[in-house]
């Protein structure tokens, strides 16, 4: 499970950093094409975090049911 956590943390972190960079470019340049990209990467970041959280929770549920 440690490898999964590392992969998901890296994925979510990378998507978050990309979103933040694109948002910064939007703020600095004022170019409207960067904001939709920043939002899209931000949404993908949140999706990755929610998938990670969901798998962690259901793993614990499955372990409780198996060991009951």
Distance between the termini: 21 Å
* Record field, number of beta strands: 0
Pick out the low-confidence regions: none
Number of helices, where a helix is a run of at least 4 consecutive DSSP H or I residues: 2
**Radius of gyration from CA coordinates:** 16 Å
Query: How many domains?
Result: 1
How would you sum up the major sheet? none
Strand content: under 5%
Write a structural description.
The chain is mainly α and 68 residues long. It has one domain. It contains two helices and no strands. Helix 1 runs antiparallel to helix 2. The longest helix has 33 residues. The two termini are 21 Å apart. The mean pLDDT is 94.
Summarize this structure as a short list of keywords or feature phrases.
mainly alpha; 2 helices
Short recap of the structure:
The protein has 68 residues and is mainly α.
Write the layout of secondary structure elements.
Layout: H1 2-29, H2 34-66
């Amino acid at each position: 499970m440690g490898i999964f956590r590392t992969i998901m943390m890296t994925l979510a972190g990378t998507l978050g950093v990309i979103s933040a960079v694109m948002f910064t470019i939007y703020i600095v340049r004022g170019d409207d094409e960067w904001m939709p990209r920043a939002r899209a990467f931000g949404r993908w970041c949140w999706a990755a975090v929610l998938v990670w959280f969901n798998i962690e929770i259901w793993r614990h549920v499955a372990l409780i049911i198996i060991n009951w």
